## 1
Amino acid sequence: MNAQTHPDASKPWYQQRWLLFVLSVPITSVILSSIMVYVAVIGRDTLVNDNYYKDGMEINQTINQDLLADELALHPKVTINSQGQASVHFSSSKLPQQAFVTLKIVHPTVGSQDVLVKLLPTADGFMGDVPSSLEGRRYIDLYAFDESWRIREEVVLPLKQHVMNNSDRARTLEQQMPKEQP
């Protein structure tokens, strides 16, 4: 019998091509898993809140804030220009005297881009400065100084004479709110 020898048969085991091919799959798997664990630990998500119970308890307070804004018939005219000036003008006669109003500009996904501004009273409304780099889709929350009422709306910045209307949302929330048992 004539025994034919394979050309790779004379090489040591660590120089075989098939060995490198077979080991490449588990080595790649270990490397990619390590990268995923690193990203999961270091890259924390700012949108996730760990205190779900507290958030659930605050829902009724938020609904009450929206309902009070609807009762006061607040329909403020909000302007945020590209130079960073924010102004709010109220036309409601039911609005109690405010020391200031709080304007919160919330980015939908990136918490580090949220802005909180206290607007001070002027002769014809409230004014304040916001960063001029704000552009694109945002949520604007307008709060009383004592946080008794709130108006929230989705907008695209910069704004020119945007009238916030809270009444439709407040009615929807009132219908969804559970009735208190006597």
## 2
Amino acid sequence: MDARLLLIATILASRLSAQQLSGYSPARLDRAVFAESVHSSITTQSGAAELHRIVTRTAQYSVMARADSLVVTADTVSLSEEANGVPRNIDVDAVIGARWRFVLSPSGAVDVSDAPVVPRSIADVSDIGTAMEDFFPPAPPRLGAKGSTTDTAGRKWQRLADSAGLQRYHFSGMRRITRTTNGDGVAVVSDENGSEVTNIVWDVLRGPISFSRNLVTIVTSRFAGQTVRAQVEQRIEVRRKA
């Protein structure tokens, strides 16, 4: 085959392969930078006591691929809390530069092998140490224009109209998670049950470009012989900057 035709065929095959490839991969996320904004409204009950809090967290994360793993660094973090109408800013110097190492499957499942230890003073407001366990939304399924499906986790997906050469998806579903965390030597077991509505903008070559998530979760936490129940309403906005 003529060298020029071979080159063109290789380029076209590469583009077709990229378009057919679905899901996450380290190469797609290598050197990516994400800006995150999380707004949480939390009502906590412990015995007869009730506390209402509004927590706002912003962060910028940079991603590096290391073989089949991802290493994520918290470049900037800010955290504030308003409890029963009284605002305060949280000192987060201890988690600036924090790093996570994990494997992200093509579907978006996470296996964290290394996460930062977060001081209790920060984790009690927002447990940044678990941020990467649920940072990336599930990868969209393969859907044609205006297609819809229900995945194996029971999430209902819709493909919306493309915009500016990017794919757009919407899904809704129920969430159930049990997790164990440790802060300053205290083990906390949490059961989380709730719902999620998410919109994703996806690039076939680069992966996620932006996503917004609305979550309503009932969290039951047990630690040191105590049980605390919380209703959490969250709005999460993530935008890829690089």
## 3
Amino acid sequence: MSTCISAIRHLRPLRGGAQSHLLKAPDGGCYVTKFQNNPQHIRVLANEMLANLALALGLPMPRVEVIEVSGWLIEQTEDRAEQVDAHTIWRCAADIPEEWYEGDRDGLDRLVQALHQRRGAIRNLIIEFRRSSRNPFSNWRESPADSAMPLVASDRIA
């Protein structure tokens, strides 16, 4: 399959287990993009592509496309986790039902503080994990500027 769409701008990360990101393409469309190294499994992408069968059956849904994400775009996109402030982490933590942390408000407070303090170590932790024997990011290249990131499947959302 040949790539006909290239991402030109990272807009924001999205919620969900596949850790999708919203990307903009030259056609003006915005795409919910799932990467090959998503935590759910590479097969998620095959499932997404097979969803085009629904279009063939006449069902109304977005068309699934393949997008190329260049090394340049990856390098130019800021690593937002390193800059997140405590207020943003608290906004997310406030949505956690109290029974999920068993009413331990002090424990939740310690967790939020720890997340905020550790945000500066994220880049090095990811690099160390990538170099582990588990090879979690098998398609990662040492120098993204030298070659393009692997293809990703995406849903166009107008």
